[in-house]
Every structure is written in C-alpha cells, then in structure tokens.
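User: quick one, fold this
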Amino acid sequence: MSGKVNLKDIAQHAGVSRSTVSLVMQESPLVADSTRQKVKASAEKLGYIYNRAAASLRSQTSGTVGVIISSVGNPFFAEVTLGLEKVFGIEGKSVLLGQHSDDLVTQERLIVSMLESRVDGLIIVPAYGTEARHVGRLLNTKAPTVFLNRKVNGVKIPYIGSDTIYGAKVAVDHLLFHGCSRIVLIGGRIGSSAHGERLEGIRKSFVENGISVEKISSVGELSTRKAGYDAAQILLKRGLEGVGILAYNDIVASGAIAAFNEAGIVVGKELPIIGIDDVELAQYVRPALTTIHTDPMGIGYTAGQTLLSIIQHNDSKLKNIILENELVIRQSCGCDTNKEKIK
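Assistant:
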C-alpha cells in the first residue's frame, strides 16, 4: 500500500494542492504549521513513506551530514553529539555517525563512504597523526567540512574547539595554589595537537610562577580509563610527594582516582587531581572531580551551526572558533566545596 501512495493521493486526502504536499515533504518553511500537520497526518494515515533518495537526486542534497569521531565510548563525544543533534534536528537533517578509533585507514574509509553517500557536509575529529595528505580528498572535492577538537596543520578547514591552553594553565595555577611542587600530565596522545595544548598551558603557568619548565612531566599515551589507572600505578611506584595531577580528560582522571582509591590514597587530601572536559560523570566520581569545563555540547552545537553556514551560504572562509574554558572546583583538588566556577 505504502509504495502505491503518491503525493497526489495525499493532496486529495488533505484537501490541499500537490505542490503544497511537496513543500511539506521538503520541510519548507513556506507552509503554515496547521497545513503542515494536516498533510503529515494524511500521509501517515495513508501509509506514505517519503523517498528521500529520489528527492536528493532532484535537489542535489541528501538531507544527511556525516560525523566522524574517534570514540563513541567517550562521554565527551556523546555530549558533543547531543549538541550536533540540537542543530541538525531543527533543520531536519539526519546524521551518519562513524568511529575511526584513531586509525588513519579507517578514517579514510569513512570519509570515502560518506562522500559516496552524498552527505551534505562532514564534521570530523581528525585521527591521531592526520596530515594534510590524509584529507586531500576533502580539499579536492571541496566538500563542506568542519574539524572538531583537533587541528590539522596546513589545512584551511574551519576548526571548532575550546581554549584548553588557558584551561590547563588555570588548572595548574590551582594545583600550585594547593602547594604542589611537581605537576604531572597523565594520559593523551603525545604529539597530538590536543596534548600539545595541555602542555603549553602547563608551561605558561610555570613561566608565570617562576618554575623551571624542565619540571614538567607526563605519563601515559592514551585517553582511556585504563590509561589513567595505569598512569596512577606508575606514579605510586615513583612516589607522590609534592605531586599534583592534571589528567588529559575526565575519563583518564576517573581511572586514576580508582587506582589511588584502591591503594588507600585519599584523593583531594593526600593528592590533588584535576581533569579536563567536565562531562556528566565528573560530578559523580568520588571524590567529585575538579575539572576544566570545555562545554562539549556547546562545541557540538557551534560546529553544527558552522557546517550549516558553509552548506547554505557556501561560506568556506569561516574562521576557527575557540570556546572559553573555566575551572569547576569540586573535591578532588582538595577544596572543601561542592561547586564553584572560576573563569
């Protein structure tokens, strides 16, 4: 039945013209809400299924955007995706989601697959090690693209991220305030732009506080709970006197806290830890995690709006957008407070 129902049938049932039905199916803003609801009600009653593929051939748009991230298991990207959905849901666009797990071959396969699916645009968290040559297909096809959370040197594609250099600096300033003399960055891919930004923030804090940058150290190379747990085990063997920990992200911090709890170390009293991201779980680990609020949902929302601007206005010269960070103080740093924000 659904395959036999056409726009003319719906128009007759709803008492409107065929062109009005067509506009409703295309989500045109030219149709009054009352008429739109009447047409959709008729379509549903008749069992009509919109042929989006055929419509995309006519309009040269698919109504779909591609999103490629490093890990669907990372709560940061889950919140980023919620921000994207807020934008694309309003616009009636569907999202194709892919995970490259920081594998360059998988990233290339996903890019090719999404371009072959004729997505209207792409939002990509570049895989670790991505260089200009790895995204040449995007540049050659001029596909509307936005990079998220990681930069690629030498590539003029709009980038949306947060000011983690400033965030890391504020975090280290706070660790120094608590009397730490040794700052350790745990987790994160050494050599990645995101890891480099965190190190730069630590350096800025050290320089402003008259501390030799040679005292900066880092442990671990992944951004997982296990990476945080393993880094904590290493630090336990080295000794924790004077140590203050800045975790690459909240996931790494939660793994480290688990290890220290097992070892009988009271985080927040005997050892301060600060994370980065302020994902939802940060307030529910024990002790509650002091962290840098990077606004992942806001990053996703801004990236979505930026991509839509490129698609709708062919505005490929948009500038990078860097969102502000702020320190959210809870208990893991040693402060006796439930929540306080410092910009």
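User: anything notable?
Assistant: The first helix runs from residue 7 to 14.
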